Amino acid sequence: MKIGIAQINTTVGDLSGNRQMILQAYQELVASGAELVVFPELAVCGYPPRDLLFKSRFVRDCEATLHDIAESIGTVPAVIGFVERRAESDRGRPFYNSAAWCEGGKVVKVGRKSLLPTYDVFDEERYFEPAEAPTIHLWNGLRIGLTICEDIWTAPHVETSRRYCIDPVAFLSDKQLDLLLNLSASPWHEGKNEAREPLVQDAADRCHCPTIYCNSVGGNDELIFDGGSLVAHPDRGLIAGMAAFRAENRVVDLEGTPLVSPHFNLKGNAATHDALALGLRDYAHKSGFGKALVALSGGIDSAVVCALAVEAFGKENVIGVGLPSAISSQHSRDDAAALAKNMEIEYHEVAIADAVHAAETALQPMFAGHKADVTEENIQARTRGLLMMAMSNKFGALLLTTGNKSEIAVGYCTLYGDMCGGLAVISDLPKMKVYALARYINRERELIPVNTIEKPPSAELRPDQKDEDSLPAYPVLDGILRLYVEDGLSRAEIIEKGYDAAIVNDIVRKVDLNEYKRKQAAPGLKTTPLAFGVGRRIPIVQKYVN
Fold first, then answer.
1. What is the mean pLDDT of residues 213-226?
2. Based on the domain organization, do 166 and 310 belong to the same domain?
3. DSSP 127-143
4. Average pLDDT, integer, range 400-410
5. CA-to-CA distance for 121 and 224, rounded, in angstroms?
6. CA–CA distances in Å: residue 485 to residues 39, 428, 448, 477
7. What residues have CB less than 8 Å from 409, skipping those under 6 apart?
8. What is the mean pLDDT of the chain?
9. Would you say residue 483 lies in a domain?
10. Do 183 and 326 sit in the same domain of this protein?
11. Which residue among 45, 63, 109, 113 is the active-site one?
12. Which residues contact 140 (CB under 8 A, 6 or more apart)?
């Protein structure tokens, strides 16, 4: 049997565009010999629709779009993810997360999602009612199970499986299935790929049939969907693996020779690079931006962001700007200019010393008698933010912020200064990961100047300033932050792992005190299991100390 897998890049709410993409993929796959075509979860409306679902016409329009699509589906069936309204008289939540089996110009069967993730970035119980069990559809003498994303995340080694009292795969395991379909919109983070292939293989083994995993691809807000659709066979193992971080339509012959893309299951820096480039490209283009604007300090963070912008937008659509102050070193100015030259981007230098002096002069009467402190340092950062936002407005370019996760965690960033911008590209990358990504970007030739990578990091807001004047060495800082922010350990538990007590107490205090900054930050692209975003909901005002 030949299965068409449509790994498509939908846009949330673009019903017309998604409809066109679905039909184009269907026609292409049928023309290539597909006998059944599978699409991702909620392909009609895009994932995640969030509170668009509560708009008065949205779900009705989604259903109308689905039926319009179904009218163009011929004798080759298509299984398409959509939002289904429940009867107004029914108790419970108003919608189902559903899969429509379309055939012969109509919807002939509907399967509904049983397990609704409500953790990290997911909040499906806010909207959807769970099905009691997955659906089995009889087609051409075959028994085909319909599952949606989380329904197969029930293997014992998957931590989140303990959240559920039912196991859809166990339910299907003794139903003599001939084929299991899983429609997914599974967002990527580091380590996700390593869990996914064994998970799909586990479902194939337990259900004793080939299992088709069709995943969405593309960026929607802070989430990046990596595709990587695959087919697992209970006897033959992996028989198909599709590209990561790119749209692809493929026909898979369940009896044919295994075919795995060289871009399947990317790991490490290659995966992080491609994920961020995809997330940035889609955030910009789906929002209507064709140009990117980056403030280049000569430091590692802005250099990596610039390189990703060139990958996402093309060098002709990236504008780099150096904004030296009276404090800026000549080597930083030189490094910024060298980066721009290597990247072959438009570059400008706009000095801020006069603007900073004007602000200080205006404030001098009120500040008389007070010692200079971080206030004056932040005037430089906020002057840069003012000028960069003006350029963004004038040229219609998306301003990219350049802060990394380590700095944002401890508040080593300036509100309304370097935090200004429309997207925080590397806000979920710890500092040491930024260095690793820079070296990956330079894997073939020097794009980021070696001096940028090797020199001690500095905000250059006061003479001879170094990051380690205020922070521990980044390998130490990143280790503490991972344990506290991502793993949720207490101070005592972190200290027990060998970290200095004074350093741990100081870093934890800084993380807690700077929640208010992170709530005002630009949205960031998620790359770790727990980012500073919708998946982490810590109150700004709270007094718990652990």
1. 97
2. no
3. TBPPPSS-EEEEETTEE
4. 96
5. 12
6. 35, 12, 30, 12
7. 481, 485, 510, 511, 514, 532
8. 94
9. no
10. no
11. 113
12. none
Q: What is the DSSP string of 157-207?
A: T-GGGGG-S--HHHHHTTS--SEEEEEE--B--TTHHHHHHHHHHHHHHHH
Same structural domain, 245 and 283: no
Parallel/antiparallel/unpaired status of strands 217-220 and 142-148: unpaired
Q: Which two tokens stand for residue 315?
A: 């060098």
CATH value at residue 334: 3.40.50.620
State mean pLDDT over 290-303.
Answer: 96
Active site residue 41: yes
Full domain range(s) for residue 321:
276-470
Both 171 and 303 in one domain: the answer is no
% of the chain exceeding 90 in pLDDT: 86
The catalytically annotated residue of 45, 149, 306, 413 is 149
Q: What confidence tier does 460 reach under pLDDT thresholds 50, 70, 90? A: low
What is residue 329's predicted lDDT score, i.e. its pLDDT? 83
Rounded to an integer, the average pLDDT of 311-331 is 92
State the CATH number of the domain containing residue 233.
3.60.110.10
Give the number of other Cβ atoms within 10 Å of residue 333's Cβ.
18
DSSP E strands in 10-158: the ranges are 36-38, 78-85, 95-103, 106-112, 135-139, 142-148
Q: What was the pLDDT predicted at 331?
A: 85
Residue 466 appears among annotated catalytic residues: no
Q: Of 138-147, 186-195, 261-270, 528-537, where does the model show the most confidence?
A: 138-147
Q: Is the pLDDT at 265 greater than 90, yes or no?
A: no
- 206, 238, 266 - which closes a domain: 266
Q: Looking at the chain, how many residues does it have?
A: 546
What is the predicted pLDDT for the residue at 463?
75
Q: What is the mean pLDDT of residues 301-311?
A: 97
- For residues 303 and 245, membership in a common domain is answered with no
β-bridge pairing 95-103 and 106-112: antiparallel
Residue 135: alpha-carbon gap to chain centroid: 30
Q: Find tokens 């604007």 and name the residue.
A: 293
Q: How confident is the model at residue 459 (pLDDT cuts 50, 70, 90)?
A: low
- Is the distance from CB of 242 to CB of 230 less than 8 angstroms? yes
Same structural domain, 260 and 286: no
Q: Express each pLDDT in 462-511 by its tens digit.
A: 677 677 777 899 999 999 999 999 999 999 999 999 999 999 999 999 99
Domain boundary pick from 417, 440, 470: 470
44 in Cβ contact with 11 (< 8 Å): no
Distance CA 475, CA 491 (A): 18
Active site residue 113: yes
Domain count, the chain: 2
pTM over 0.90: yes
Are residues 25 and 39 in contact, defined by beta-carbon separation less than 8 angstroms? yes
Task: Specify whether 173 is located in the same domain as 322.
Answer: no
Do residue 12 and residue 156 come from a single domain?
yes
The 8 Å CB, 24+ separation contacts for 174-177 are 175/136, 175/143, 175/145, 175/207, 176/143, 176/208, 177/136, 177/143, 177/144, 177/145, 177/207, 177/208, 177/209
